[in-house]
Write a structure and sequence with these properties.
The protein has five helices and five strands. The chain has 178 residues and is of the alpha+beta class.
Length: 178
């Protein structure tokens, strides 16, 4: 399951607490041009014994070239057949991506229905990263990267968090036996 997301200096806001009578103040940036764009895949072994988060980041918009680089990364890291499920985003349908996939039969592609992000488990990875970075107000690109990569590390090292992304989706999965 593959998906893309972007993070900026405008951190997501969520509910917080403060002593009664002291309204919390959360500093945020008005700069929208500093972004960190991510492409990720949750990879599950056929026997469902292992789950792994593969991820690449970019300081520029993700195009068909980056999608192809990410798919090449998956081919290097994952042995055997790859069943790839992603949404109908235009970058997945670019001619160069389709041509590249046609030359790599080890990757079989399936698409989620239109307007059904809740079915994509990788969307729940973004939810975890947003939760972790909420109210953090990064100061610059380096601070943004540090906060996002701390969130990625937290999610990546926890099989329980990764499986939670799978089970949160509307896909039919059986719980792995461990």
């Amino acid at each position: 399951m593959v998906d893309e997301a972007g993070f900026s200096l405008v951190s997501p806001l969520k509910r917080t607490w403060a002593p009664r009578g002291h309204t919390p103040t959360i500093r945020t940036s008005l700069t929208h041009n500093v972004r960190l764009n991510l492409i990720a895949a949750l990879a599950v072994t056929p026997a469902q014994r292992k789950i792994r988060l593969h991820l690449q980041s970019y300081r520029h918009s993700i195009s068909g070239d980056e999608v192809i680089r990410f798919l090449e990364h998956l081919l290097e890291k994952v042995t055997g057949l790859i069943v790839l499920v992603w949404d109908k985003h235009p970058i997945h349908r670019r001619r160069q991506v389709k041509d590249w996939l046609a030359r790599h039969p080890r990757i079989q592609v399936f698409e989620f229905p239109t307007s059904a992000p809740e079915l994509n488990p990788t969307e729940f990875v973004w939810t975890q990263l947003n939760e972790y970075t909420a109210n953090s107000a990064p100061r610059d690109a380096a601070d943004l990267s540090a906060k996002v990569f701390a969130a990625i590390a937290r999610t990546r090292r926890s099989a329980r968090r990764l499986w939670a992304c799978i089970f949160a989706s509307g896909l039919p999965w059986e719980r792995p036996t461990t």
